[in-house]
Amino acid sequence: MSATEEKTAYVGSPVKRREDRTLLTGRGTYVDNMAPVGTLSMFVVRSPYAHARVKAISLDAARGAEGVVAAFSAADLQGDWKAAMPCAWPVTEDMKNPPHYPLTDVARYQGDGVAVVLADTRAHAKDAAELVEVDWEPLDAVVDVATALEDGAPLAHPDLGTNECYVWRLDTDATGQAIDDAEVVVTRRYYQPRLIPNAMEPRAALAVPDPAGDVTLYSATQIPHILRLLVAATLGMSETKLRVVAPDVGGGFGSKLDVYAEELLAVALARRLDRPVKWTEERSENYVATIHGRDFVTEYTLAATKDGTITHCRAKVTAAMGAYLQLVTPGIPLLGAWIYAGPYAIPNYSVEFTGVFTNTTPTDAYRGAGRPEATYVIERTMDALAEELGIDRVELRRKNFIKEFPATMASGLTIDSGDYVASLDKLLEHLDLDALRAEQAKRRENGSERQLGIGFSTYNEMCGLAPSRILGAIRYAAGGWEQATIRYLPTGSVQVITGTSPHGQGHETSWAQIVADQLGCDIDAVEVLHGDTSVSHAGLDSYGSRSLAVGGVALCHAADKVIDKARQIVAHQLEVSADDLDYANGTFTVKGSPDKETTVAAAAWAAFAAHDLPDGMEPGLEATATYDPPNFSWPGGAHAAVVEVDTETGDARLVRYVAIDDVGTVVNPLIVDGQVHGGITQGISTALYEEGTYDETGSLVTANLVTYLVPSAAELPSFELDRTESRSPTNPLGVKGVGETGTIAAAPAVINAVLDAVSHLGVKDIQMPATPERVWRAIQEAKA
Amino acid sequence: MIPARFDYDVAESVDHAIELLGAGGGDAKLLAGGHSLIPALKLRIARPAKLVDIGRLSDLSYVKDGGTHVAIGALTRHATVAADGTLAEHCPIVSFTAGQIGDPQVRHCGTLGGTLAHGDPASDMPAVMLALGADLVARGKGGERVIPATEFFTGVFETALAPDEVLVEARVPKLAGSTGWSYVKANRRAQDWATVGVAALVHRDNGSVAGASIGLVNMGGTPLRARAAEDALAGGKSAADAAMLVTDGAEPPSDHAGSSEYRAHLAQVMARRALEQALGD
Question: CA nearest B256 in A: which residue?
């Protein structure tokens, strides 16, 4: 019997996060807190233009300024790069990937770096950067993703002759019926705004050289392991010469899942100057120099029979890559490519993605990455189809749900488990839809200024990245496994080393819960180490809701190995067969002689002393497991938003938000609720607040926290959360991912609710975010 | 987010501040609560040669009953104004509005004098002072002078204060019990500047409307009085009809929060609601 099948104590309990005492009392260690002696501050000189050539650049005045140690242009450092900046996901064989380097002499987006200044203090570096003289030749910029492929559009990379990066397709044709021959066909076109991640801690990098030529890179990153590999490769260093440390990291949401110019510059310059080099992103820089998300135009079609059986779905997506391909930029649409049928059984399936270059900050993974984009168009169009068919929105969803699991979808992947009907039923229980409908009818009748709307979003998603074979099949350069090591120390403490790299998720707590249960020890005896390549030698880091579903399972396997070894030791010492030992909660007992028992902790001491181990057994009680998941992880659920729309001002305010999520086994309900709260907030924010906009020249209009609206708690109600639980059968914990579900589900629920509030006025569509002015104009246009 | 280089002096008294400002040769800025100035410095939009910190002049933090008016010291924090009993009794539109500024963090640092002297047409309090016909007291080398609020706001981020003058006090009239008041604003987030705000005072005589005073936030380069709407209301028009006139003479800006056209519409809606509230309808 596997240890994980035992009755558990910590898993499932709302254990308080052990990380929080340090973080909430301001005693965390972030990169910017570190200041080794002799550290130089680096400041990057950035292009004010979206597209411009550097005709001439003079660093003389900057070099002569107070405190300045060195300054470099793109040309000065070109020899330091052994490869262009990495893109790990060439999604098609003929994908265009024009090389780009940490500094450039042709800026292709506002914020592209053209020079660096290094000084004794950050203030001196910044002051000197103002003295860098650049003679710019502005070039035509392409900004709008929707028109970037039109004839005559300016080209982000004139040498390519086109702004098209790639076209990727996935088609199935199960029934042979053409989509246009279906009884009812609904096509809608949507724009999903460009989103600008705002982690609480901006990015930061500190490269510290040592006399032997090794470099330690401290970075506010989600991916210390991947970063080590790719920084070493880009600089032509041996990986053994580079150690990467991710200390406390204050949020990422995908924006720290990248290999950035400043990280490469810090390492290259630390080696050149033989001094520590530190760069800390300013909040204003964050807006232009850190990746953006979304910026998708999607035409989505659902076809159905008159009775509401959906027969086809088709998505045609134009996705902004930005100016260059960052780590996984072209792959972002693909992360949603298999779920454009949502939680519905749709036999005919077609998606087509066209990646497009524009003179904008590169896009890349942002919470949900590819899946919010899919869910948004599906759930908006489900409402449109329901209206077209004259069928209740909730019933159309229920009717078309996938109901049997495992379920192989038309797109080709298999959902391991789920129960979408149960989530929807539970949602309706919480919602009290009849009362809401009655209130809505009353307000419509009264012609109230404040109309009520109810919106639904039933969703599924694929996460837990990812089976390495599948990643290989879709041309991703690396695998999706994860590694964990467990060391049972002689004194009874347990050291856990994980390849995942938490940046707010609370792995130190959840991982300790899992291990303490399995090894039957106290949770406080378990220490969790992470985020340092000299401690955690192998791993693939944290993103794509993978940490628990892949890294947590690796942990289970490592614990199983520890228990197995302990079992051999105990059997030897008690002179019984290993098969004669029962194991529960850290204790082995001899079958039939329950008074003969010994513990894993005792075995750990015996393994350390090594006085009496079975022949040939190595001393020490330690095991490493590397786990490659057989399938993705498939959370799902049902969300509903209730909004009030001021029809005079267009102001839409959220009144209630109810979410029922199925994320499999819950290890820590407190942490899961936190993830769901944060995720939903980001989805709501997409629907009502956040929108990165450029003017026609490619200058970012929403370049600060005043104009780019990140909501606060004051704008949001308390969310009503509950769960259903379909254990994943593919892993011993039964877990799925939870990091992105809220963001994936929430935006369409909110927009559907806003539309529901004003549909009786004739409004059919409102572009996200539903700003007061957009809602007001939609009402005016419907009246006209 | 590092400001450009500046010199920094701490004022020990108002007179000392005036002296330091004078020595700054017109390129010195007063630092009070810092909630407008510090961000501007960090963005390097403002690059004064010198900051004169008046944050320690605690004798400028007070609310006093002045007989016919209430006197508020320029360094009184918004949170203090919001919680003040004298204002709540005699001029509640001021304490109410102070409680609507930004978020708690802003209200506990930002000062009344700061928000007035900054001259931001999108701030709440200038329009309230305008509607009230408040007197603003400035002190310079030659002593004190009283500037009516109607003459104080001269342009975007510009006021009637001389470079070496310090705003020391605002005097707001005590409102009669028969005066109705309201301040309403539309904003996206609690911490945002108002997309549009409307301060309304309605004076009654024996139950009928005898006069009105309306201040507008973010409807032009300075806070504005909506004279046409005021006259219409005093002339017997309904709140709804009068509110349609608030855009007369306004030049609403276009920005991320809304186009000029939308702002004009929003001002009419907000004005109607403000007048209805003030009228107790």
Answer: A707
